[in-house]
Design goal:
heterodimer; A: 73 residues; alpha+beta; three-stranded antiparallel β-sheet; 2 helices; elongated; B: 134 residues; globular
């Protein structure tokens, strides 16, 4: 007996819940879309907490002794 | 005083937010190497006394990740050289509501995943900062 396929018309950025777990529709590397566990953006997290990204000046002063960037990310 | 004459700021503490931790680390099974490695590193960071090899993230990188205001640690923390450290943490410097500077944990993952469909830790950090993948 053939299994019925449930087709979903989804767009990037939408959230779906499968088996009690949430997934976000994101672009795949092949140019289509795929489902991944969501990553809550800092804009949402920081708004809830009353935080904001620090200034570039503060960053420069706090990382003066860090190793330099290595080009990978 | 730094070479530029500006006064250095006192070190900022590291914060592991619960939502970030669940999304980044607890997506792995409890016994997964990646998860136990992240948990071990977090314990060491929070306990203090461990010499941490902080490294600035590239503001722009070949991968397209744009991570301003971020620094990283390679895991395991005691790995001898970057090639022995397959995972990474990324943190962003933030100012809290009481004007305290902290390093907020934003991403954990593989630096160079074998599976081409796996997002790198830098891609995950970019997604968390900008709301989309690079």
């Amino acid at each position: 007996m053939a299994t019925a396929v449930k087709k979903l018309d989804l767009e990037v950025g939408e959230l779906v819940e499968v088996g009690g777990r949430r997934y976000e529709v994101v672009p795949s590397r092949e140019g289509g879309v795929t489902l991944e566990p969501p990553i809550t953006p800092v804009s949402e997290l920081y708004a809830e907490r009353g935080w904001k990204p620090a200034s570039e000046e503060d960053f420069e002063r706090l990382t003066a002794d860090d190793l330099p960037p290595d080009g990978e990310g | 005083m730094s070479q530029s004459g500006e006064k250095k700021l006192p070190p900022a503490s590291v914060e592991f937010g619960s939502r970030e931790w669940v999304e980044e680390v607890e997506r792995f099974e409890p016994s997964a190497v990646a998860r136990t490695r992240a948990e071990s590193a977090r314990r060491a960071i929070e306990a203090g006394g461990h010499k941490l090899r902080w490294q600035r993230c590239d503001p722009e990188s070949d991968s397209g990740a744009h991570l301003p205001g971020c620094r990283k640690l390679y895991l395991p923390l005691d790995a001898e050289g970057a090639s022995a450290a397959p995972h990474g943490f990324v943190f962003q410097l933030v100012k809290t509501s009481d004007n305290t500077l902290i390093w907020n944990f934003v991403a954990f993952g593989e630096r160079h995943p074998d599976n081409p469909n796996t997002r790198t830790v830098y891609e995950r950090a970019h997604k968390r900062l900008h709301g989309h993948y690079p």
